[in-house]
Specification:
The protein is globular, with a radius of gyration of 21 Å. Strands 2-1-3-4-5-6 form a 6-stranded mixed beta sheet. Strand 1 and strand 2 form a beta hairpin. By secondary structure, the protein is α+β, with helices and mostly antiparallel strands. Helix 7 packs parallel to helix 10.
C-alpha cells in the first residue's frame, strides 16, 4: 500500500504538481487543498480499500470536502469491486457516495476473476477526455473475447440475488475469522473491534509479524506443515518492521477451513515460544 492519495494542481504556467497527503487523513488533505493555487485543477486520488492493511477509506469525509473545495475525486475500487455495494458497485456505492465520485477505476482480475481493468467516468466530458487523451486506452490492444465474456458474466451474477448472497457470506466469513484470530494477538485492534459489531469489513486481513524473517517463517510453516497458502508481505511492499501475513478471505471458505487456519497460526506461535533449558 502506498500513500493515501494525491492532489495535483495545474497553475497558469501549465506545470503539474503532485502532493501526497497523509494516509487516509481528510484533515491533511483539506490543508493541502487550501494551499493550492486559486486557478488550480485539483484531482484527489484514493483507494477505497487499502490493499496491504485492509482498512477502508474515509470516503464520506473526503467527499464532504467538495462542499468547500473544487476538485475531481478519483477512487480506485480494485479491492472493492463486486465485494461491496447492494449491486457490487464498490465501496462508494455501499456508502451511498457514488454520485460524489467523478472517476472510478478498478480491475477485472480480482473478484471479477478475469484480466484487464476499467475506468468509469461520471459525466460524458470526462469520458471523452479519457478515450481521446488517455495513453493506456489509446495504446492498448483489446482484451481477448473470452476474458470479456467472463467479466460480463461475473458482473451479471454479482448484480443479482446470488451476488447479494455471496457478499453477505463474505462478510460473515471475515467476521468469523477475525474473531477466531483475536486470541493470537496478531489482528489489528481496530479490526478486532469492528468484527464485534456490524461495520463493513474488508476481505483483506493482515496479521502483524514485524520482521521479514518472522513473516517468511510463518508463511512457510502454514504451507509446508498445514497445507495453507498465506503469503508473507515484506519490504519494499510495506515499510520495514511491518512485515505481515496477508489473508484474503473469500465467500467460498468453509467454517472448518477458517478454524483450521486459526488453529495453524496458534500452533506456529506455540512453535516459536522460547523453550526452557531446564
Amino acid at each position: 500500500d502506498g500513500p493515501g492519495g494525491a492532489q495535483g494542481g495545474r497553475p497558469a504556467a501549465g506545470a503539474i504538481f503532485l502532493h501526497i497527503y497523509q494516509h487516509n487523513d481528510p484533515q491533511d488533505l483539506e490543508a493541502k487543498l487550501k494551499s493550492a493555487p486559486a486557478n488550480a485543477l485539483n484531482v484527489v486520488v484514493t483507494e477505497s480499500v487499502f490493499s496491504m492493511d485492509g482498512t477502508l477509506c474515509r470516503l464520506a469525509e473526503i467527499a464532504a470536502l467538495k462542499r468547500h473545495h473544487s476538485f475531481l475525486l478519483v477512487v480506485d475500487e480494485a479491492h472493492a469491486t463486486l465485494v461491496f455495494g447492494d449491486r457490487g458497485g464498490g465501496f462508494a456505492q455501499a456508502c451511498g457516495l457514488g454520485g460524489q465520485v467523478d472517476i472510478s477505476v478498478g480491475t477485472l482480475s480480482k473478484a471479477v476473476g478475469s484480466i484487464g481493468g476499467f475506468v468509469v467516468a461520471r459525466c460524458e466530458s470526462l469520458r471523452a477526455i479519457i478515450l481521446n487523451k488517455g495513453r493506456p486506452v489509446i495504446y492498448s490492444t483489446a482484451l481477448p473475447i473470452d476474458c470479456v465474456v467472463r467479466a460480463i458474466a461475473a458482473v451479471e451474477v454479482a448484480m443479482g440475488v446470488e451476488g447479494c448472497r455471496l457478499r453477505s457470506k463474505l462478510q460473515e466469513n471475515v467476521r468469523s475469522l477475525v474473531l477466531l484470530l483475536r486470541a493470537t494477538g496478531l489482528v489489528p485492534p481496530a479490526l478486532a473491534a469492528a468484527a464485534g459489531g456490524h461495520a463493513l469489513l474488508s476481505p483483506i486481513v493482515p496479521l502483524a509479524m514485524g520482521s521479514e524473517e518472522m513473516a517468511t517463517e510463518a508463511s512457510q510453516f502454514l504451507l509446508e506443515r498445514c497445507g495453507i497458502f498465506c503469503p508473507a508481505i515484506r519490504p519494499p511492499t510495506v515499510p520495514r518492521g511491518t512485515s505481515r501475513l496477508r489473508i484474503a478471505v473469500t465467500a467460498s471458505h468453509t467454517p472448518s477451513q477458517l478454524e483450521a487456519l486459526a488453529d495453524a497460526l496458534m500452533r506456529f506461535l506455540e512453535h516459536k515460544k522460547p523453550r526452557s533449558r531446564l
